[in-house]
Design a protein that fits this description.
Layout (H helix, E strand, L loop, with lengths): L1 E2 L3 H4 L14 H25 L8 E2 L4 E2 L26 E2 H4 L1 H8 L8 E4 L7 E4 L3 H4 L3 H15 L10
Parallel strand pairs: 1-2, 2-5, 3-4
Antiparallel strand pairs: 5-6
Helix pairs in contact: 2-6
Length: about 160
């Protein structure tokens, strides 16, 4: 499972060179998550081609903030530093933000290549949503390029055994 952000569908960033760093923090974050999605969906295609019983899914947690997270000892209590967040009005607790991931991991109907997100984009019950075509079905050359660049950066080959 791979975690992304709604910014991927809102802002278009170039991923031809995965190491090139955009000027702003939000653009850099969006680029990292765009690369994550391209890789996740390419991984799913390769898992299916190898007939492996493994799925690659993408989730988006929406917006989760401390102020809406239930109090729990050691997680959110008097020892937890509080930071103001401008998104608190539209957000959900961090516990609720995890629902999309929990659904993707536990739903027996979930299939590789799917994308789960809060129903309201920022908060809500997790639902399957259509992924961006830009990351889900990019040109084959781009998906291969991202894959190859990540292998080079990691210093390993991401080889999948073929199931027979």
């Amino acid at each position: 499972m791979h975690t992304s952000t709604g910014f991927v569908s809102q802002f278009r960033v170039d991923v031809d060179d995965v190491r090139a760093t955009p000027r702003t923090a939000i653009a850099a974050y969006t680029k990292a998550k765009t690369v994550t999605e391209v890789f996740a969906f390419e991984l799913d295609r390769r898992l299916r081609a190898a007939a492996l019983p493994v799925a690659s899914l993408v989730v988006r947690p929406g917006v989760g903030v401390d102020a809406k997270t239930p109090t729990r000892a050691g997680i959110r209590d008097a020892t937890t530093p509080y930071q103001r967040n401008p998104y608190t009005l539209w957000a959900q607790g961090k516990d609720t933000a995890a629902w999309a991931a929990v659904r993707a991991l536990t739903d027996p109907a979930a299939l590789g290549g799917e994308y789960y997100s809060p129903a309201g984009r920022l908060r809500g019950l997790p639902v399957r949503v259509e992924p961006s075509a830009r990351t889900h079905t990019p040109p084959a050359e781009l998906a291969k390029s991202v894959w190859d660049q990540l292998e080079k950066l990691a210093g390993v080959r991401f080889e999948l055994p073929i199931r027979r």
